[in-house]
Specification:
With 603 residues, the protein is α+β, with helices and mostly antiparallel strands. The chain has 20 helices and 20 strands. The protein has 5 domains: 93 residues, 3-Layer(aba) Sandwich (GIY-YIG endonuclease), CATH 3.40.1440; 101 residues, no CATH class; 110 residues, Nucleotidyltransferase, domain 5; 160 residues, UvrC, RNAse H endonuclease domain (Nucleotidyltransferase, domain 5, 2-Layer Sandwich); 50 residues, DNA polymerase, domain 1 (Orthogonal Bundle), CATH 1.10.150.20. The strands form 4 sheets. Strands 13, 14, 15, 16, 17, 18, 19 and 20 form an 8-stranded mixed β-sheet that branches. Helix 4 crosses helix 11 and helix 19 crosses helix 20.
Length: 603
């Protein structure tokens, strides 16, 4: 091992301070990592002189027994060479771009009366290609749109003028249904057909404005020549083109040829969205996922992805909009990090696309394996709340009373981060007189867990108290009496600033407002409050009804229930006429109730 370390030191000492690409090789002679650097010596030595937080990166460094390097002239050459070597050797520790499929193109064939069609084969035969398109459905929409306004042939006949002159062809069904104007029998001139091809090329380039201007001038000329039917056909084409342009243009049309790249990431993956903008119209949208193998800088991952996407999609844009500064250059290309204006709007739009793509990927993973999602959330809560175990079983408590009257408490139960309503419990406070929330909390915690212990039932891993330090201390007193301190974790959450309090710690913690841990704790707190308040209202209402009817001499509980069952409320009973009361509970009792409410009515 010492010999290998000395060998690495000698290699690093001999490295030039030039731009280039380096390759790390393990004991089997396999290339395990490829990287690029503006300064090879400085970059490579950083792997061996710095301490790394990432375990994967430490393992990579330990496996390196040899280093090869290639010096190049420019940073762009380094980017391209790194990209090609990664694709060739697929090193174990390089980020994996999960996007290896081929993409379709629009081909305008180099032939008389050129065909326009989609293909995945790029053949250098003089034909013109547009794309590639990262979405097959988008390509279909574009081709359908073109065919809707420009009748084109789709046959494979040899339409050289000499062949047409022989009159050897017959028109097909496409001619009869209006999708083709019959160039095979000489009914459409090559000049007319070529004008359509010229327009189509401009549309595919994003130069829709030029086509619209040309069609408008042609339409005016036809109108002046009283060729109104032909002018109407051009007007219909114009309507389609203007509608297509209005849907495509999302920014200032003066933004001619720009690539936009955005970047979002999580622990295991990065997501890069690409927009191709021509004349203010977004003509390509694509998002890729990059699987991280080791902890790589986001700048490096974004640069690698930019190089790969521009190569694959054959982009020649001279301006690239990015979300942060990149310390690397591409020849004749300017990187821009916009702060305001239309270009900033483009970057924001791209960032939203990348974020939505990331969210959809996460949803797909959750749908495939719901348990993995539960395990991840439970592990996150364990880390955020400094727990010894995952809080698979959580119970939340809250008190409810109005000026000390009808004091009650609620207990809600969550399993795997979700409410288990069958296990919710209500409690009437028995030993506390008046509005004493601390004493009420102490009583209810003691009753709840004494019963669970007596029954041998499973205990929760976490208790959530709705309240601050006072309620938390009261609950802790009960756990101490039962010998459960240290067995069950307990926290309090205060409403005002969502502070999380821990036993024995006077300073609360504040979880990120978007964290899943805080959202689950808030859900528990809100559920315990809702459940408690609902019970309190029901109890208060029943007690009010009971006292109101029981004050009537000669009316017992059974009669009161009959009255409520028939008339639904005390208010309705008060307003009911004597004959109806007598019909419901008899002549004598009906007369008693009627006289009572008509003498003592407070309404």
């Amino acid at each position: 091992m010492t010999e290998e370390k000395n060998n690495i030191k000698q290699i690093i000492a001999a490295l030039p301070e030039n731009t280039g690409v380096y390759q790390y090789i393990d004991s089997t002679g396999t290339i395990i990592y490829v990287g690029k650097a503006k300064n090879l010596k400085k970059r490579v030595s950083s792997y061996f002189t710095k301490s790394h937080d990432s375990a994967k990166l430490r393992i990579l460094v330990r496996k390196i027994v040899d280093i090869k390097h290639i010096v190049v002239d420019t940073e762009q050459d380094a980017l391209l060479l790194e990209n090609n070597l990664i694709k060739k050797y697929q090193p174990r520790y390089n980020a994996l771009l999960k996007d290896d499929k081929s993409y379709p193109w629009v081909c305008i064939k180099s032939e008389p009366f050129a065909r326009v069609f989609s293909t995945r084969q790029f053949i250098r035969d003089g034909s013109t290609y547009f794309g590639p398109y990262t979405s097959g459905s988008t390509l279909k929409v574009v081709l359908d749109f073109i065919r809707e306004i420009y009748p084109l042939r789709n046959c494979t006949l040899n339409l050289h003028p000499s062949q047409i002159a022989k009159a050897k062809y017959k028109v097909c069904l496409e001619y009869h249904i209006g999708n083709c104007l019959g160039p095979c029998i000489g009914e459409q001139s090559e000049d007319s057909y070529q004008q359509s091809i010229h327009d189509i090329k401009n549309i595919l380039k994003g130069n829709i404005g030029k086509v619209i201007s040309l069609l408008k001038s042609q339409m005016q000329e036809l109108s002046k020549a009283y060729k109104f039917e032909d002018a109407q056909k051009l007007k219909e084409k114009l309507g389609h083109l203007e509608n297509y342009q209005s849907k495509s243009t999302v920014v200032n049309p003066s933004i001619h040829n720009v690539d936009v790249f955005s970047y979002v990431e999580d622990e295991n993956s990065a997501f890069v969205n690409f927009l191709k903008v021509v004349n203010g119209a977004i003509i390509q949208v694509h998002t890729v996922e990059i699987k991280k193998r080791i902890e790589e800088e986001k700048e490096s991952l974004l640069l690698t992805t930019i190089t790969e996407i521009r190569q694959r999609l054959m982009s020649t844009a001279k301006e690239i909009i990015v979300p942060f500064q990149l310390d690397f250059s591409i020849e004749n290309v300017k990187f821009l990090v916009p702060q305001i204006g239309d270009k900033k709007k483009l970057l924001d739009w791209s960032m939203r696309n990348a974020f939505y793509f990331k969210r959809e990927k996460l949803k797909q993973q959750m749908n495939k394996s719901p348990q993995k999602r539960v395990d991840r959330i439970m592990e996150t809560m364990k880390t955020d709340l400094r727990l010894k175990k995952q809080p698979v079983h959580i119970e939340g408590f809250d008190n409810s009373n109005i000026q000390g009257s009808h004091p009650v408490a609620s207990c809600v139960v969550f399993k795997n981060g979700k409410p288990n309503k069958r296990e919710y419990r209500h409690y009437n406070i028995k030993t506390v007189v008046g509005a004493d929330d601390f004493a009420s909390m102490e009583e209810i915690i003691l009753r709840r867990y004494r019963r669970l212990l007596d029954e041998g039932a499973s205990l929760p891993q976490l208790i959530v108290i709705d309240g601050g330090k006072g309620q938390l201390s009261a609950a802790l007193n009960s756990l101490n009496k039962l010998g459960l301190v240290g067995t069950i974790a307990i926290i309090g959450i205060a409403k005002r600033l969502e502070e999380i309090y821990f036993p024995g710690d006077s300073v609360p913690i504040y979880l990120d407002k978007n964290s899943e841990s805080l959202k689950i704790i808030q859900h528990i707190r809100n559920e315990s409050h809702r459940f408690g308040v609902t019970f309190h209202r029901t109890k208060r209402s029943k007690d009010f009804i009971k006292s109101e009817l029981n004050e009537i001499p000669g009316i017992g509980d059974k009669t009161a229930q009959e009255l409520l069952s028939t008339f639904k409320s005390v208010y309705s009973i008060k307003k009911t006429a004597l004959p109806e009361l007598e019909k419901a509970i008899g002549k004598a009792k009906g007369n008693i109730v009627f006289k009572y409410f008509n003498k003592n009515s407070i309404l």
